[in-house]
Specification:
The complex is a heterotrimer of chains A (478), B (655) and C (102). With 478 residues, chain A is mostly helical. In chain A, 75% of the residues lie in helices and 1% in strands. Classes of the chains: A mainly alpha (478), B mainly alpha (655), C mainly alpha (102).
């Protein structure tokens, strides 16, 4: 604890400060470009300040934030993902009518919430982070107020998210009532001190799981996912799919390990049911879906299920699996939605399968990028998604979870079908009826997609690059 | 400077060349394509020369270049690297050196490809390959439908870049294959060269016959590849590593000689080698592989890829030493192949098919040497064979090109005067092929046969008979094509890019016998070369002379006539048998293809298909069922969530 | 320490929770749904206060303050969206918002 906690909190402070600065800037003069530029600078500055706590980690920063390598790694991931989404948003919104200056502001606050989630070790920071993220997302989803779908999506997300928060809070209250502790580690000490499973604590934990499962769109709490994915602007969908879910999953794992909930066998049963339902349900729902955004939404349900399998498998490999799978998932998902975002015009969102007919002949590079991302999501070798799935299969077979393993395999088979449907549509000849945006104007998006493509292939061919980083991450229980 | 560290860059340049040509090939001019395609290989060859010379002048200690860990999950850790010892240096020289010369040659050969209207030559009907070689036709009739004629204009414009892209891809894969330090990377290269071979055999894809030949090569080698894959997984399963050196150490330490494990592993590795090197019983693809352009035949189907099997066995020789039955099989198969392919070469009329059968036969010699444990002799023959066979193919290519894509040797003739360089190339190449003294082939074949004699006189006798046959079949085309009456008017002559490789290869063929690579540092020294002249070496040395004389009597002086010989009732079926490659294609057709077709016909409405159709229907039905649950209504969603929460509470409480 | 046993306090908050939940599920008017959501959230706040009083600890009440903030923010955004919905669809019926499904 040699470091001043204030400096350790610098990444948070920078993001929060940038958000305030952007807000003040908008108040003075509305200006689209500078607002985005300022936000981008803030995120980059925050990434740079991550180096400060990295040297002395783990650090208890203030009362509520616990920064170990694990948290810092994911903070870097979330900030990078946030930066990519910001770039996509810039191109998506720059030619649209209306005022879009608040968008970077909301992205920054959402990102701040995600960062807090990743670093939290206490119910209060857990809750604040989750809600900061959630409330910013309501506004982001409904940002294009003139579009009925966005509005519908935002309202659905708001009400259902409110319900899930209530479950979560009730769970926290029950645990607090029994343990008298709000720190994860304090709960861990309580659980370790008990002989039997305490019913109140178990119920509380289950309610927390229900609340988090909503955010992760795990079955049977997944209902909002397709509607929100469809209604939200494509870059924001990417944000929900990656930043929001990654942060919550990171927190779930942290809570699970720190509070010693692995000793709760019933919890593992519940997780198994949830994972099985998500994998099978998500893949089945996606099977014949004709809306690409909804299809990706259903596939994300399945992906979260796969990751939950790794969590159930546990063991020494689980932290490593998360640290590989989540970045892999983030880059492919942002890449996929990036393509959707680039193809979308101010009039229509490019989410119908018809928009993709013959894309290979019109925009071969974009189609190739999309194909690559889809193959990675399907877990085809030589893409990063394959290595991720390999981790999960390794973990599941190591823990002898044969039933779930079977679900993963069946799910992957179903997945291949609907991912390839898009690829087939893209390679078919024939003119599309959908309007197509002229090529070459989205510099930021193009650059982001190029970087992501390179990463997906590079890490797929040579995963050691990321693995070496992962191996150096140590998970420290506070 | 430490040159040897440049090892890792050698395969990179052809790969870069491939990427450039594949991505931007259509935008480049012809000369730019040639620069990229040939230049990348030239840089590789230069680097290989530097690395190799530093290695050979050093202590000969194997050099290991770690490329890093490819994957590391839980207990599974696979490290990749390159491994350089005298064996891989030999292969490195062969691949980059000959590869460069052939690329240079191809830069001109492919540029002067004829531009014919698409309708000039009708495509062959799609018939099984054994029927495409009708047994009752006269020799001159057959070859008129040569395949290289069928390149048409539209394909060619893009073809130049495509050709070099494939060639560079092949080079990169081949270099990975020979340099890899572990079986997995070796397998990557192994499949990579298979892909390159497939793409290049079918390079002129407008003619369905070429595509057919490409598929045949791919499928036949695939049989071997599968065995190899199983073999390397078996080794990994048993010895927990992919690293070749480590595997060899562990195999020697853990496995007693002659037990099941080493025999199984060696047999599976042998399966891979048989497929790739076109040995009995997987040899039938190589003659058909001649459908590719001639430089491809020279590089892939003579000098480099087909010898990969020899390299594989030499590389894993420790396992073979532990499996005497398999080693015996290697020797026997090699001896049988060399005789059978030699006989087939005797009666072919297509100049490239003669060379193809001779390649099979010469690799048979290498297998024979491997089988008796004469590892370094086998590798030496590999080296010399690569040189003189490349020379022969390139000379044949020059002849074919200048005779307006004529393949049949009986339609050529008297070319000695009009194509002196091609004549001397062919002459010297054939001399080396039939192991006449003072050529490189003489030294390597002589060493093999004297080593074989020390192990098994029977195998030696087969080898000597093979040498006799080699003499006949290698000088038959020389006499027919270059002597006698000139039938073709040679209108064009090759440029420097085709002549220079021929000249260099002539020099190498003549003096290659002096190249003594220190292979003894890799292999256990088994055989002492007997320099004393005795009966055995006399017979060994004399056999080719008999062969050449017989060829001369038949085709030069005209003392005997092949036609009259063919008129004998007994001999004509034999000739047809040889011509069709011992009817193995027909045999496989009867054994595998027809029963499979019958089965397919019988089971037209596949029972097992119903299972999949059912699965699809069930999937569809389930999808419709569950997607009905996404009603889009908030209240339905909220109630379902509440129910879900109740459900997980119930499950949690229950269990 | 205080007169009300913890179990009874928790029971009360659970009842409020369920009542609020039922409100969300059965009401079709968006404003009523938001109000019911408020009830649910406050029920959890009550649970925290009860739990805090068991341990004689201010943490429970601090959590309640945080929950209040959340509820306010959520309702703020929620009402804003509801206003837009009314302008666009001229109805507050939650069931009419089902353009996206399947």
């Amino acid at each position: 604890m040699s470091m001043n906690p204030f400096f350790a909190l610098a990444p948070f402070v920078v993001i929060a400060g940038t958000a305030v600065a952007v807000m003040l800037g908008i108040a003075l003069k509305r200006n689209f470009g500078p607002a985005f530029a300022m936000a981008a600078c803030g995120i980059i500055a925050s990434l740079l300040t991550l180096r400060m706590p990295w040297r002395d980690s783990p650090i208890q920063a203030g009362l509520l934030i616990w920064l170990d390598d694990y948290a810092l790694f994911y903070m870097a991931l979330l900030l990078s993902a946030g930066l990519a989404v910001l770039g996509l948003c810039y191109d998506y919104f720059k030619d649209r009518e209306g005022q879009h200056e608040e968008l970077p502001l909301l992205l920054l606050t959402a990102l701040l919430g995600a960062l807090v989630l990743v670093g939290s070790s206490h119910f209060a920071s857990f809750f604040i982070g989750l809600e900061l993220l959630g409330i910013s997302l309501f506004a982001l989803i409904g940002y294009p107020l003139n579009q009925a779908r966005s509005l519908e999506a935002a309202l659905k997300y708001l009400i259902l998210s409110g319900m899930s928060s209530a479950f979560l809070l009730m769970g926290m209250a029950l645990i607090y009532a029994q343990c008298g502790e709000l720190y994860f580690s304090g709960i861990g000490r309580y659980i370790a001190g008990q002989q039997d499973i305490n019913v109140t604590v178990l119920s509380g934990t289950l309610l927390i799981v229900a609340g988090l499962a909503f955010k992760l769109s795990l079955a049977p709490f997944h209902w909002w996912t397709p509607d929100v994915y469809e209604g939200a602007p494509a870059p924001i969908t990417a944000f929900i799919a990656t930043v929001s879910k990654s942060a919550v999953f990171v927190l779930l794992l942290r809570y699970f390990i720190s509070s010693g909930s692995y000793s709760y066998a019933p919890l593992l049963n519940v997780f198994s049911v949830i994972a099985g339902l998500s994998i099978v349900g998500g893949n089945l729902l996606a099977l014949l879906q004709n809306n690409v955004k909804r299809l990706l939404a259903y596939s994300s349900i399945a992906h979260m299920g796969y990751l939950l399998v790794a969590l159930i498998a546990g063991g020494s490999i689980v932290v490593e699996t998360f640290a590989f799978y989540l970045p892999a998932y983030c880059m492919t998902t942002i890449g996929a939605f990036g393509v959707v975002s680039v193809l979308s015009t101010a009039q229509t969102e490019a989410d119908d399968m018809a928009c993709y007919r013959g894309l290979f002949w019109r925009r071969p590079w974009l189609a190739a990028t999309f194909t690559l991302m889809l193959l990675s999501l399907a877990g085809i070798p030589l893409t990063v998604g394959f290595i991720g799935k390999f981790y999960i299969l390794t973990g599941a077979s190591g823990s002898r979870l044969w039933g779930l393993l079977l679900a993963v395999i069946i799910g992957s088979g179903l997945g291949l079908y609907y991912y390839l449907r898009i690829v087939v549509a893209m390679s078919m000849h024939g003119e599309t009826t959908a309007t197509v945006k002229p090529f070459g104007r989205d510099r930021a998006s193009t650059a982001i997609l190029a970087v992501l493509t390179l990463l997906v292939v590079w890490l797929g061919v040579y995963p050691s690059l990321l693995m070496n980083v992962i191996h150096s991450i140590t998970y420290v229980i506070e | 400077m430490d040159m040897i560290g440049l090892l890792g860059w050698i395969p990179l340049f052809p790969l870069l060349g491939f990427l450039i040509l594949a991505l931007a090939g259509e935008r480049l001019s012809k000369s730019a394509i040639a620069w990229v395609g040939v230049g990348s290989v030239a840089v590789s060859a230069l680097l290989a020369g530097l690395v190799g010379s530093e290695f050979l002048t050093g202590t000969l200690q194997p050099y290991h270049l770690a490329l890093g860990t490819w994957i590391e999950i839980d207990e599974l850790s696979i490290a990749f690297g390159f491994y350089l010892d005298a064996l891989s240096v030999t292969m490195l020289f062969v691949v980059t050196g000959i590869g460069f010369l052939i690329h240079l040659y191809a830069a001109e050969f492919m540029a002067s490809d004829p531009v014919l209207p698409p309708f000039a030559i009708p495509c062959r009907p799609r018939v099984p390959w054994e029927l495409q070689r009708p047994l009752d036709r006269s020799e001159t009739q057959r070859s008129s439908k040569n395949t290289e004629l069928n390149a048409n204009a539209s394909a060619f414009d893009l073809g130049y870049a495509r050709f070099f892209a494939y060639m560079n891809l092949f080079m990169a894969a081949m270099l990975v294959l020979v340099l890899s330090d572990n079986l997995l990377l070796l397998y990557l290269g192994w499949e990579g060269v298979g892909l390159g071979s497939y793409l290049l055999i079918g390079f002129w894809y407008e003619n369905p016959h070429n595509g057919y030949a490409a598929r045949k090569a791919f499928v036949m080698t695939r049989v071997g590849d599968t065995a190899l894959l199983i073999g390397l997984l078996l080794l990994f399963r048993q010895l927990h590593s992919f690293d070749i050196q480590l595997l060899m150490l562990r195999a020697t330490a853990h496995w007693p000689a002659g037990t099941l494990m080493p025999v199984a592993a060696a047999a599976l590795l042998l399966g891979g080698a048989l497929g790739k090197s076109a040995q009995l019983p997987l040899q039938t693809w190589l003659p058909d592989a001649m459908a590719g352009p001639t430089p491809v035949s020279a590089l892939i189907h003579a000098a480099t890829m087909v010898t990969a099997g020899v390299y594989l066995i030499a590389r894993t020789h420790d396992v073979f030493l532990l499996a005497p039955p398999v080693q015996f099989a290697v020797a026997t198969l090699g001896a049988m192949t060399l005789l059978m392919a030699g006989c087939s070469a005797l009666v072919q009329t297509d100049i490239k098919r003669i060379l193809a059968y001779s390649t099979i036969s010469q690799i048979g010699y290498m297998f024979l040497a491997l089988g008796v444990g004469a590892w370094s002799e086998a590798m030496f023959h590999l080296l010399t064979h690569a040189v003189f066979k490349a020379l022969l193919f390139l000379a044949a290519g020059a002849v074919i090109l200048c005779c307006h894509h004529e393949h049949s040797i009986f339609k050529m003739g008297g070319l000695r005067k009009s194509m002196p360089l091609a004549f001397w190339s062919f002459m010297i190449g054939s001399a080396a092929l039939s192991a006449l003294p003072f050529t490189s082939g003489f030294y390597s074949k002589h060493e093999i046969l004297s080593a074989v004699y020390q192990v098994s006189p029977n195998l030696w006798a087969m080898g000597c008979l093979g040498a006799l046959i080699t003499g006949i079949y290698s000088f038959r085309p020389v006499f027919v094509v270059f002597f006698g009456v000139q039938s073709h008017l040679v209108t064009k002559s090759p440029g420097w890019r085709m002549n220079l490789p021929l000249l260099l290869l002539i020099v190498l063929t003549l003096f290659g016998g002096l190249l003594r690579l220190p292979l003894d540092s890799v292999f256990p020294l088994v055989f002492k070369v007997d320099r004393q002249p005795n009966l055995v070496s006399l017979i060994t040395g004399a056999a080719p002379f008999f062969g050449v004389s017989i060829a001369g009597l038949f085709y030069l002086s005209g003392a005997f006539s092949a036609q009259r010989l063919a008129a004998y009732r007994l001999l004509n079926p034999l000739r047809n048998l040889f011509f069709s490659g011992w009817g193995i294609d027909a045999l496989y057709d009867a054994l595998f293809v027809q029963p499979f077709k019958a089965l397919a016909k019988f089971n037209k409405h596949d029972v097992i298909d119903d299972l999949y159709t059912m699965t699809a229907l069930i999937g569809q039905w389930l999808h419709l069922t569950v997607s009905a649950s996404q009603t889009g209504r908030i209240r339905w969603y909220a109630s379902s969530m509440a129910l879900g929460a109740a459900l997980i509470l119930a499950i949690g409480r229950q269990s | 320490m205080n007169g009300i046993p913890m179990e009874q306090g928790l029971l009360l908050s659970a009842m409020l929770f369920v009542l609020g939940l039922i409100g969300v599920l059965v009401r079709r008017n968006l404003i009523m749904m938001l109000m019911s959501l408020e009830v649910v959230l406050n029920a959890t706040g009550l649970a925290f206060v009860v739990a805090g009083s068991r341990w004689g600890d201010a943490d429970g009440q601090i959590m309640f303050l945080l929950i209040l903030t959340l509820a306010a923010a959520e309702v703020g955004v929620g009402l804003g969206l509801t206003l837009q919905v009314f302008r666009r669809f001229h109805t507050l019926d939650a069931d009419s918002l089902n353009e996206m499904k399947g």
